[in-house]
Specification:
Chain lengths: 401, 401
C-alpha cells in the first residue's frame, strides 16, 4: 500500500480544530459547548451584503478573472483609500480567503528552505502553510507579561540568516490581540530595509482596534517593494464561509509571479466576490456598532478572566482574541478534560491550547487562546464555566477563591 | 529590493490564459473573439441549483466543516452510487475546485522531488501544482495519430524510478478528449499494484462521454488504498465560478493527512456548496440534454476541422476538448497572430497553444487545444475564421483550397 508523504505526516494539526472530535463527543452526551476556540464570530453578516448575493442575475456561474473581478478590485481601491492607502486595481489580487494570500506570499517570495521571521505566538495555520511551501518559520518570542509587544530589533536580528527572506506579522494580532504601534512598524521597516526582506502583513482585523489606531504596513514609506499585505473579508464582515481575501503589493515582480499561482487555480469563488464588493458600500459607520460590541466583550473577558485565581490575561488592543495563562501544567490536557470530563449545569467551554501557536517547543504550554465571538451573556457563562472547571480540575496549581 | 523565489520564477504560465492580454487588445480594437481556448461552457448553470443559492436562509456566513458540509458529503454518496461507487461521507472531502483536490493529492502523497507519471499532453495546470508541491511530472507520450490512447504499459514502466509515487490521469481527458477504456484502467491498475503507486484520477468530465461509457478508477477492485479521485462540479453543472470540487479516497491515512491541509485553509466556499448539494437532486435526465448538445458540437467541430487543408483532428470520446494539428510550424506564434494581426468580418478566434500541455520540450508545437464550449452557430463561425486565417497566415505549410 502506498504511504503518505513525510510532508503529510509532518503537517501540523490545527490547534483550533484538533479538539473538535472531543467537542462532538461532548455534544453527543448532551453537553452544550461554548466555543471560544475559533474565530467564528456570532455577528450577523451585513444583510445588504448577503442580499447582493441573493440578487445575482447571471445565468452561468463562470470563472472570474484569476485576480478576481475587476469591478471588485476597483471597489477595493476605494476601501483602502479610506485608510489613506493609494492602490490601483492591478496591485490587488483577490484570493480564496486570507489563507491563500499567505500561501501565495510564501510560494512566490520564498523557496523551500528559505526562512521567515515571525513573532510568536502566531496564527497557527502559518505553520501549515509553511509546511506546504517548504518554508521555515523562525520564531521571535513575544511575552505575555508585556501583552505580547513587538520584540526588540535585536531579537529579530539574532534570527537573521542567509536564508531569511521575510518577516511576517499579523496586526492586530491573532492570537494575542496585540495592536502594533506605528513605531513598531517603523522598527520592522528598518529590519526589512537593512536585510532586504519582504514584510508580510496580515491585517484581517484592521477595523477592530480598541486601544490606539491601526497603522498599515502599506502606509510605510520606502517599502513599496517590500510590503505584501494579506487581507480577508472573513472577520471584517463576518463572512468566514465566503473564502474571499486579498493579496496586495506594489512589487510588480511579486504580482507577476503570484498571478501564475492564481491562474493555476483558475479563479477565486464568484458568489462571495459579490458579497465583498457590496460590503465596501456599507455605510462607513457600519463598523462602529460591531466595534462597540467587541470592545464591550473584550472588557468583560479581560476583567472576568483576571478575577479567576491564578489566571493572567493581558488586555488586547485589537482583533477579538486574547491569550491567557492558566494555573495548569498543561493547557492542552486541560482543554481536552474540559470537553471529556467536565460540565457545569450541562455546559462546558472549548478553548484553543496555546502551545499550537508557538513554534518553540515547550512555550505556551500553560496558555490558551480565547476568541470573544459570543455575546456577553454567553461569554460570561463560558468564563464562569472555566472558573468552576479550574477550581475542580485536579491539576490546578492554585486552589483558593 | 527583495526578489521573488525561483519557484515563482519557474512557475509555468497557463497556456489557456497566457494569451489573454492579446485577446484584450483585440477586443479594444473592436474585434470579436471566439473563445475556444478555455473550458468555460456557455451552457446555463441549472436554474434549480442557482435558486438554491438565492434562497439560502442563514444570517451568518460561517466557516463550513473543513471537509465540507456533512449534508453535502452525504448527498454526494448518492451521486456516486449512481455509478455503482459505494462511499461513505468520511471518504469525501469537499475542496476549493478540482484544482485544490489535485494540489492536496500532490501535497499529501508526495514529497518534494517525488515523481508522478502522467500521459502527455495533460491538463496544463498540473505543471503549476507540481511546481507548488515541488513534485516532478514524468510524461509518457500519447499520440495524436491514435487519438491519444493510453500509452502501453512498457512506456509507463520505462518512467518508473525509485522516486515514483503516483500515476495521474484525467478521464475523459483534458486536453485530448480521450476516454480511457476499462481495459486501459486495468492496465494502470497493474502498474500501480506492481510498483505500489497511487492512482490519481481526475474525472471532472465523467458525464460527458460520447463514444463508450465511463469507467471510474474508484470501480477498480484491490485498489482501495491506491486510488485518489479528483472531482469538481465546475464542468458537470457549468458552475466553474463556484470553486467546488472533491477529493475522494478510501485510503484512511491519506484522508487523515489531507484533512490537515484542509484544516489549515479552514473550509471550502460555503455558497457554492449549497449549489453542489442542490445539483445532486437534479432530474437524472438533466445530463441527456447537455450531452446531446456537446455531442452535436463535437461532431461539427471534428468534421469542420478535418475539412481544413492540412488540419488533423482526432475524434474525442468525451469531455469537451479536442487537440488538433495545424499546418503551421509554431502554433503558439499562430495563436498570437490570430489575436494580434488577423480578423475576418470583425472576428477572430482564440485557441490554446498545444505546447503548454506537454512537459517534453518541442512536443505539441504544431497542435492546439479547442474547447467546444460555444453553440454550434458560433462554433461554425469560429472554425470558418480559423480556416481563413490558416489560408492567410504567411507560415502555413499547405496552401490549397
Amino acid at each position: 500500500m502506498p504511504t503518505i508523504s513525510q510532508r503529510g505526516e509532518q503537517m501540523p494539526s490545527s490547534p483550533i480544530r484538533k479538539l473538535v472530535p472531543y467537542a462532538e463527543a461532548a455534544r453527543k452526551k448532551g453537553v452544550q459547548v461554548y466555543h471560544l476556540n475559533i474565530g467564528q464570530p456570532d455577528i450577523e453578516t451585513p444583510a445588504a451584503a448577503l442580499d447582493a448575493v441573493r440578487h445575482f442575475d447571471f445565468k452561468i456561474l463562470e470563472y472570474s478573472h484569476s485576480a478576481g473581478n475587476e469591478s471588485y478590485r476597483q471597489k477595493l481601491t476605494q476601501y483602502y483609500s479610506r485608510f489613506d492607502i493609494s492602490l490601483d486595481p492591478s496591485q490587488i489580487m483577490i484570493t480564496t480567503g486570507g489563507s491563500e494570500a499567505i500561501l501565495f506570499g510564501m510560494m512566490g517570495c520564498l523557496d523551500p528552505g528559505d526562512e521567515i521571521i515571525i513573532p510568536e505566538p502566531f496564527y497557527a495555520n502559518c505553520s501549515g502553510f509553511a509546511a506546504e511551501a517548504g518554508v521555515i518559520l523562525r520564531p521571535v518570542n513575544s511575552h505575555i507579561e508585556d501583552g505580547f509587544a513587538l520584540p526588540p530589533m535585536e531579537a529579530f536580528e539574532a534570527q537573521v540568516t542567509k536564508r531569511t527572506r521575510a518577516v511576517l506579522i499579523c496586526n492586530p494580532n491573532n492570537p494575542t490581540g496585540y495592536l502594533y504601534s506605528r513605531q513598531e512598524l517603523e522598527t520592522l521597516k528598518q529590519i526589512c530595509l537593512k536585510y532586504d526582506l519582504f514584510l508580510f502583513s496580515d491585517e484581517a482585523y484592521r477595523e477592530f482596534c480598541y486601544t490606539g489606531t491601526h497603522f498599515s504596513a502599506l502606509s510605510l514609506t520606502e517599502m513599496e517593494d517590500h510590503v505584501v499585505l494579506m487581507d480577508t473579508i472573513s472577520k471584517r464582515y463576518s463572512a468566514c464561509g465566503g473564502r474571499i481575501g486579498a493579496f496586495i503589493t506594489r512589487n510588480r515582480a511579486v504580482l507577476n509571479a503570484t498571478m501564475k499561482f492564481a491562474q493555476a487555480r483558475l479563479s477565486p469563488p464568484s458568489f462571495a466576490q459579490i458579497l465583498g464588493e457590496a460590503a465596501v458600500d456599507l455605510p462607513v459607520d457600519y463598523f462602529d456598532g460591531v466595534k462597540t460590541e467587541y470592545l464591550a466583550r473584550r472588557d468583560l473577558l479581560v476583567k472576568e478572566m483576571n478575577a479567576i485565581p491564578g489566571v493572567f490575561c493581558p488586555n488586547p488592543g485589537g482583533a477579538f482574541y486574547a491569550m491567557a495563562r492558566l494555573p495548569v501544567p498543561d493547557a492542552e490536557a486541560f482543554c481536552q478534560w474540559l470537553l471529556e470530563e467536565f460540565s457545569h449545569e450541562g455546559h462546558t467551554v472549548m478553548l484553543a491550547p496555546g502551545n499550537g501557536f508557538y513554534a518553540t517547543p515547550g512555550l505556551g504550554k500553560n496558555e490558551v487562546r480565547l476568541a470573544y465571538v459570543l455575546n456577553r451573556d454567553a461569554l460570561k457563562k463560558a468564563i464562569t464555566c472555566l472558573k468552576i472547571a479550574l477550581d475542580r480540575y485536579p491539576d490546578t496549581a492554585i486552589k483558593k477563591g
